[in-house]
Amino acid sequence: MIGRFKSKVAVVTGGNSGIGFAIAQRFAAEEAQVFITGRRQAELDAAARKLGERVSAVQGDVARVADIERLFAEVRRRSDHVDVLVANAGVGAFMPLGTITEEHFRQIFDVNVKGTLFTVQKALPLMRDGGSIIVLGSTAGVSGSPALSVYSATKAAIRSLVRSWILELKGRNIRVNVLAPGGTITPGLRGLAPDEATYNAFNDAMIADTPLGRLGRPEEVASAALFLASDESSYVNGSELFVDGGMAQY
Fold first, then answer.
1. Which CATH superfamily is domain 9-243 in?
2. Residue among 151, 199, 235, 250 flagged as catalytic
3. 151 in active site
4. How far apart are CA 134 and CA 136, in angstroms?
5. Using H for helix, E for strand and C for coil, what is the string for 53-81?
């Protein structure tokens, strides 16, 4: 039913493309006021124009706590509360064991773990009791993948954080869940690979490992996010919802 999120405020980090863009689009269609973030101003502005007047864009990098604080200062200025937080911003890159650099480790953990942790923490003063927090995990958090060990470790860390957060937030009735996509057709997936041949091989391997025999679409992940944010999932807390075509389920 359209309009389920009327008068509600949703914040989606990394909302300028891919899964984050699709999630922001769904919330806006449900009449929520939506704030999105992204690191690149031009791309962020273009996304906001496509998403429409219900969406506000705030440039920032979740690896920088000052940028996260600036985001929520702007949310407070315009709306004074948050009903739904989607900590979606994340990065990944192939780097096999034996070649992993300190810079690679720092970048992936700073965005995926530090960024998620401080996004949630800085949102809490604005979160309404009974709100919903959704953090983006991955099938990589529960299964191994060559050359993606650092990325996989960050997604496992996020899953572990949520298990503790639901205990710390139980007095506020704020639900926290992990949304774990499998292979999904996004610019971020393409960006994992350093060249076309590597991407094609990775793409083919994911399809072969997925019982449904295809990659997912961002819109399919967005539908699951809408469920986790809505009252339809009012007794779902601390869960990990896989939207993976069965990839990690056997």
1. NAD(P)-binding Rossmann-like Domain (3.40.50.720)
2. 151
3. yes
4. 7
5. CCEEEEECCCCCHHHHHHHHHHHHHHCCC
What are the pLDDT digits (tens) for 62-107? 999 999 999 999 999 999 999 999 999 999 999 999 999 999 999 9
Bridge partners (DSSP) listed for residue 55: 34
Tokens of 229: 């944010």
pLDDT reading at 61 higher than 80? yes
Per residue, the 3-state secondary structure of 175-242, as one string, reads EEEEEEECCECCHHHHHHCCCHHHHHHHHHHHHHHCCCCCCECHHHHHHHHHHHHCHHHCCCCCCEEE
- End-to-end alpha carbon distance in the chain: 34
Residues 63-84 as b/e (b if ≥16 CB within 10 A, e otherwise) read: bbbebbebbbebbeeebeebbb
| Residue pair 210/245 in contact by the 8 Å Cβ criterion | yes
